Amino acid sequence: MFGYVTAVKNRLTDEQWRRYSAFYCGLCRELGKRGIKARATLTYDMTMLEMLLGGVLGGEETAGLMRCPAAPVKKREFVSNSFVSYAADMNVLLASYKLLDDWKDDGNLLSAAGFRLLSRAAAEAAERYPEQSATVKRELEAISALEAAGENNPDIPAACFGRLMEGLFSVGNNCALISFGHSLGRLVYIMDACVDFEGDLRHKKYNPMTAYKKADFELLLSTLAYDCAEKYRALGCQRDNEIMENILYCGVWSRYYKKYGSESKEGDAYGSKPI
Amino acid sequence: MLMVQNPYSVLGVSENASDEEVAKAYKALAKKYHPDLHPGDKQAEQKMSEINAAYDQIKTGSWKSAQQGGSDPFAGGYGRPSGQYSGTPRYAHIRECLRIGEYVMALHYLNETRDRSAEWYYLSAIANSGVGNSLTAINHARQAVEQEPGNTEYVRLMNILSHGGRVYEQRSATYGAPCICPNSLCIWACLAYLCCSGLSSGLGMCYGANPGSGV
Predict the structure, then answer these.
(1) Distance between CA atoms of B45 and A8, rounded to whole angstroms?
(2) Dist. CA B99–CA B85, nearest whole Å
(3) What is the pLDDT of residue B83?
(4) How many Cα atoms occupy the beta-carbon half-sphere of A204 within 13 Å?
(5) Given an 8 Å threshold on Cβ–Cβ distance, is B198 in contact with A206?
(6) Which has more pLDDT, B195 or A60?
């Protein structure tokens, strides 16, 4: 379920985008220490995790220049805070378990190969953070079981994913962070289900939102996103507030509107009803 | 609407069907009747409602437990139609749970009964909201309002539950996310309407989101 917790570039200032990108590079650099395969699992989702933990729990930042393997000509700026190693471990852990899940569900051997290659980095991450590892494994297994059983109450698997995210945010004994994590988890799970909805329905595949209509999605997703935004406010994040709000009010919808947004473009542009 | 139909018949499976067979039947029926595949078809919508309710009854086991000799100790007395909500004695214990914040217990009591009256949905909406099940809460509040449109308490609950979503939509409009207009039109159209009559040629970028495609 990677790819939802991301910022929208053209709604950030140049400076904000540079800083966000620099954190992304910094996470890549850290992942690189865990191997080439680990580096390939880089996500914006875990970049946000790192930035938010720094913003709430404080700590130093380091900055510098690095060589990017993907664009080796010019050196890139990077920024990292004291949670970069943690974020890299979580990134690898999630990627490994997701690959394992895909393999079990779809019999996808390519995923299996990826998992095996990642397993040393993942095993080390699991050793460093056994609670998070156990939580991720437990909740992904619970979700698999619910999906296999055809659970049509989406709140139930969403709660599992909420607990999974709680685990990721269980740093520094901060209840507000855990609460935010739970809320974000529920939002991401349901957002993903909504994006996959049409395809799943047509192919008679399981989708947790089967008991709902597409017309209801935006209200439901806005309700979940509202809870998330309120929990974010309660964190008192000291850094990068604009980037975080961009993600929570804008970025999380990217894939949803990429999928369904084109329909709204065909609507009547003038003489439309006011908000 | 009380569920008097046998949910197994609704799904077209035998009462001894395995969970897997039930889920398979549900998916096949959803593909056949889901309103999003039949826009504007009221019968499909009605049918889908019955299918969802039947699946829900089988999953929670409320049909079978009632068949096995009335584990519905609170039977007798139904919700009053319309007017100010006062509730029935039948659900006094559930309302008490909700009052003191014992939402899990309330849900347990709610799932023990086969009743699916407006009052049931109303109480279930509150309990689900309390444990963070926002989707179920809104869904059930809506069902309560649909069954008893005149009931101001149910309407009020629906408004409370929808409030957050509306606040969010207003806030996100300032970030450039598309406003959620009744016709789901793009934000530029809405801004154009609000600011000046027929001014904006903002048809161009509806939602030009370009989520960090690499650095």
Answers:
(1) 37
(2) 15
(3) 32
(4) 10
(5) no
(6) A60
> How many other C-beta atoms are found inside a 10 Å radius of the C-beta of residue A78?
23
Q: Who contacts A2 (Cβ-Cβ below 8 Å, separation ≥6)?
A: A43, A45, A94, A95, A98
The interface residues of chain A toward chain B in range 3-22, judged by CB-CB distance below 8 A, are 6-11, 20-21
Q: Is A214 on the interface with B (CB under 8 A)?
A: yes
Contact B34/A223, CB-based, under 8 Å?
Answer: no
Task: Spell out which residues of chain A touch residue B128, defining contact as CB-CB under 8 Å.
Answer: 155
Q: Which two tokens stand for residue B185?
A: 């039109």
Tell me the pTM. 0.77
Chain A residue numbers touching B23 (CB-CB < 8 A): 149-150, 206
Query: What are the residues facing A8 on neighbouring strands?
Result: B211
Q: Does residue A248 contact residue A234 with C-beta atoms inside 8 Å?
A: no
pLDDT of residue B33: 85
Mean pLDDT in residue range B9-34: 85
Query: What separation in angstroms does the CA of B148 have from each of B81, B94, B138, B145, B195?
Result: 7, 20, 15, 5, 40
Is pLDDT above 90 for A227?
Answer: yes
Helical (H) or strand (E) element with A78: strand A71-81
Does residue B78 or residue B111 have the better pLDDT?
Answer: B111
- Residues in chain A, overall count: 275
Contacting residues of A for B50, CB less than 8 Å apart: none
A201 vs B19, B36, B164: nearest CB: B36
B135-157 pLDDT, tens per residue? 999 999 999 999 999 999 999 99
Cβ of residue A159 closer than 8 Å to a chain B Cβ: yes
Buried b (16+ CB within 10 A) or exposed e, B173-196: bebbbbbbbeebbbbbbbbbbeee
The reply to whether A227 touches chain B by the CB within 8 Å rule is: yes
Query: ipTM of the assembly?
Result: 0.86
Place of tokens 């806030």: B171
CB atoms B27 and A210 under 8 Å: yes
Contact indicator for A222, B180 with CB cutoff of 8 Å: yes
